[in-house]
Every structure is written in structure tokens, then in C-alpha cells.
Amino acid sequence: MGKKSSARSSGRPNPKSNQESSPMTSALNEDGDAPPFDLAVSRCPQTAERHQALDTDSVISKPAIARANLAVTTSAPDGSPESKTPEIKDYTVLQQHVLFWDRDGDGEIYPWDTYIGFRDLGFSVLFSLFSMMNINSTLSYPTRLAVSWWPDPWFRIYVKGIPKAKHGSDTGVYDREGRFVPQLFEDMFSKWDVHGSGSLSAGELWNMIRANRLAADPFGWGAAFLEWGTTWLMTQKDGRVSKEDLRQTYDGTIFWKIKEAREQGKGWNKGFGLRDFVDLTRRQSKAHVM
């Protein structure tokens, strides 16, 4: 008997003689050079549809290495100045994200702290109550494990244990210790900002949420939807959330800016509230009548 082909004997599928070339040879960095390896394969179309950010290292040194206390991007390679202050620099980026709700700095976020924080951001009483009950009831015990095995009777969230509150089906921009991974943040826009505008629409965010879903993770699906939905409601302008606003959401600096703008009477000129919804409904009704 003749020898079988090496492809058959190894149990691998026998490629067609007219097999297409690598679908990602067109993915070039800003110098016009393709990397010396495949970034996508034809058997998994998503790898060709969702491009990685290839030139992050031209602005950020070692972008795949997580930053402990700085949210750095190609448009803000030094992060937020606030993150370098003595009061903040010893907190991870994920901890910085929640410090807005720890007003007294004791490392504990009570349910009423959560409620007050959302009210300061301009959310309604009902939305703030919902956020308080949802966030503190689900995140209290995981963060409590940093100090005790016993559940907390006050449903406090512990800043020290906030990495334990990280859920599945997320972007991975926060690593398991709460540090910030610049490459994965840049990948968000490379993959989902289809128009290259430096911002994400509600539809693009929805596509990202769907793509990030992991099997058997309903809690992660719901958490991602609520987090990104709230972010869009808080920071959108003309239907899109800018890259810089998202960066500042990750390290929490945008929360303080919104609070300050509202307290100074200037108001926050972004976001989407009940009044915007009513105005949108009226405009659509008029357009339908015409």
C-alpha cells in the first residue's frame, strides 16, 4: 500500500489546494509593515473582523504589561495627573474607580454611600436606589473576603478587596489584581470603533458586550450590560462615548469632574437622562406625523 499523506496520518484536515492566503495580511501597523506572524485565520472569521491595535507600542512602552495605578492610552500616555498624587498613587486603577463612593476614605462603601454617589452624578432617585441595592448586594461578600469569611450585615463594599468583585464576560482591561492593561483598552477601539472616530456608539458597545460573553456566565452578562449601559447614559455626547471619557471612567476621575460641574452650577453637558428621552420621543413622534 502507498504511504498516506502526512496531513492524513497526523489526523489534521487536508487543506484544499486552492486554500486562501492568510486573511490578515492586510493588517498593517502605522509604518505599513505587517507583523511576521498571522493575526487571523480563515477558519475563525472573527479574528479577521476584530482587528487588534498594532501600533500601541509606538506610544506606550510595553503596552501588554498592566499598569498598577495609571490608566494610560495612546492619547493619554501619562495617565491622569490625579493618579500620581500621594493620596491616590498607592491604589490600583480599579480601586481608584470606586474611590468616588468612599467619601470618608475608610475603605468601606456603605449602601447609602453608593446611593449618594449616583445622585451626585445626576441619576434619578429610582436609578440610584436600584444601583445601590444591585451593587452592594452583589459585590459586598466578594470584597468582604479580603477581611473575613462572614458576610457583612451592612452590605459594605471593601475597597481593599475590590479585585474579587471582577466578573467574567468583561473586556479584561482590568486584570485580576485590578491593574490597567493598555493594549486591551486600545483593542476595544481597534475592534469596535468601526468608523475610527475615537468613540463608541451604543450599538458598538452592544456588539462588544455580546462578543465578550462567556459560556454559563449570566451574572457576567448582566453586570457588563448594566455597567456599559450606565457608562453610556452618563458620558455619551451625540450618541457616542469618547475614548478619553472611557479612560477616565476606568480610573474614576470622570466621576469627580461630573460632581464638580454639577456643584458649580455649570451642569454636566454630556449623558442621556429622562428629559433627553422625552425630547427624543417627541421629535420622533413629530417626524412620524409629518
UniProtKB/TrEMBL annotation:
A Pfam family the protein falls into: Caleosin
GO molecular function annotation: calcium ion binding; monooxygenase activity
Ranges of biased composition (kind: Polar residues): 7-28
Region Disordered: start-end pairs: 1-40
InterPro entries named among the record's database cross-references: Caleosin-related, EF-hand-dom_pair
Source domain of life: Eukaryota
Protein family: Belongs to the caleosin family.
Protein name listed in UniProt: Caleosin-domain-containing protein
Lineage, broadest ranks: Eukaryota, Fungi, Dikarya, Ascomycota, Pezizomycotina
